[in-house]
Amino acid sequence: MTMKYIFLIKNRVVTQICQDEPYSEEITRQLLKQGFYIFHHHVYADDDKKAMAKYHELQQN
């Protein structure tokens, strides 16, 4: 099943959040309060490993 992922970044830390998971909005809010920002792209992927691979691919371009 394909799910939507966003990425939150702070310094060199990249955290992916699956928007289809319960509590994803609360987790996102808490990370934003801690100084993370949302990467300007989101991706659709079958799992978190594929989502992170797509993130790295976007970083290459």
What is the overall number of helices? 2
Extended strand count: 4
Evaluate the radius of gyration: 11 Å
Helix content: 25-40%
The low-confidence runs, each spanning 5 or more residues with pLDDT under 50, are none
- Mean pLDDT across the residues is 94
Number of domains: 1
Order of helices and strands: EEHEEH
In whole angstroms, the N-to-C terminal distance is 26 Å
Strand content: 25-35%
Helix/strand structural class: alpha+beta
Shape: flat
Main sheet summary = 4 strands, antiparallel
Task: Compose a concise summary of this entry.
This protein has 61 residues and is of the alpha+beta class.
SSE map:
Layout: E1 3-10, E2 13-18, H1 24-33, E3 37-38, E4 43-45, H2 48-60
Antiparallel strand pairs: 1-2, 1-3, 1-4
Describe it for me?
The chain has 61 residues and is α+β, with helices and mostly antiparallel strands. The chain has one domain (7-59). It has two helices and four strands, in the order E-E-H-E-E-H. Strands 1, 2, 3 and 4 form a four-stranded antiparallel beta sheet that branches. The longest helix has 13 residues, at 48-60. 11% of the residues are buried.
Keywords, separated by commas or semicolons:
single chain; 2 helices; 61 residues; 31% strand; alpha+beta; 4 strands; 4-stranded antiparallel beta sheet
